[in-house]
């Protein structure tokens, strides 16, 4: 795990393997960002000119290495682009700093210690840089022999932060806790499905619960059968790895509100009898990303000591074809008592979530938020980097959208058009698990809404796009599992604890 320190040392005097500075654009000129004045002085005030000669433009996502001159203890200077410089006295945007720090940390893979001399005007700036660096310094190497060659940056020292200032210290501690929990989610998402079965995922939750004082309950296939959880069982019945429903709860003695989080945890999704074609099943180990986000968010709430009760529900199953698998045309009796005609076994996430939503509703929380890699339709609508938000309360949906924007996660509010509900009418059951093809992401949201308890505020996050990144890494986002929505959920819990929601 990458270490984080706040340092009062000067950029010129701190011993490190690399020194990270910011490069910005001011009109047509390149300028060295605040925080690196001592570094620029070591270059006789010509650092920006030298970097321009090397081809640097100051654009976001850019990284340029050069050897240090005499006068600096670090042998290497790494300049990262920050884009346009803000007006005098104003801070760089938090997400700009977060991504720049992530780019630097990724570039410095294999380095022991890096000093970050990026612009810090307030504790929020330090938090963004710390978070970006810790998220950028991530690598999943559990199954690789040459893992030593890919070791992430071992230590991050933030220069310009104030280690004795309570606000800076709290910001750094929060950044470390949240980043480590996001990386926990990433590890789970990246783990091969032959190892991360529903039972193995449940065991991971139990281990974390023991470490952080959380109450964990696991319903195995026998308990699920006895309880009548037809949705979860219907999805998992085709696999040799039986399903689980996990309740993981953090409580605070001063809490006045309870937030329930429900995560889709399909540890592998073949599509079942409605089998996915080649080209669509190779990354389906990531179909438990919602459950990973929920799990990590509950642990983060505990680590931060938030004055709110947060209960996570992990609906875990493996969706496989076999002689015992659910068939298109089968009817499942859900935990709520409703019957569902299964028209497509690849629309399985909504089935496990439905049972979990009903169970979560029995505890009458103040709000429920479910998180799922639910539909390809949402990816078609919003792309690979943006998750959709649906809710039964417009104000709550807006609040989550604003929170996501604040923490640097791209999202977009989506409607729940009542006219799409009729498409799920079934001649055989109370409802079908499929409706109109157009607006499929919205149809899925309408299906889930049917299983939310009356009078409970509810939101649905469809993270199918940003949960798993198949392209080249950028900023603090790695290839593979991203931990999408964890930052939003943690901030949502903080706002709930503060009485703002």
TrEMBL record:
It catalyses: Release of an N-terminal amino acid, Xaa-|-Yaa-, in which Xaa is preferably Leu, but may be other amino acids including Pro although not Arg or Lys, and Yaa may be Pro. Amino acid amides and methyl esters are also readily hydrolyzed, but rates on arylamides are exceedingly low; Release of an N-terminal amino acid, preferentially leucine, but not glutamic or aspartic acids. Mn(2+) 1 binds at residues 269, 346, 348. Residues 344-351 form the Cytosol aminopeptidase domain. It is found in: Cytoplasm. One of its GO terms (molecular function) is aminopeptidase activity. Coiled coil: none annotated. The active site is at residues 276, 350. CDD domains: Peptidase_M17 (cd00433). Its EC number is 3.4.11.1, 3.4.11.10. Pfam families: Peptidase_M17, Peptidase_M17_N. Its cofactor is Mn(2+). Keywords: Aminopeptidase, Cytoplasm, Hydrolase, Manganese, Metal-binding, Protease. Mn(2+) 2 binds at residues 264, 269, 287, 348. Binds 2 manganese ions per subunit. Presumably involved in the processing and regular turnover of intracellular proteins. Catalyzes the removal of unsubstituted N-terminal amino acids from various peptides. HAMAP family: Cytosol_peptidase_M17 (MF_00181). Belongs to the peptidase M17 family. This is Probable cytosol aminopeptidase. The gene is pepA.
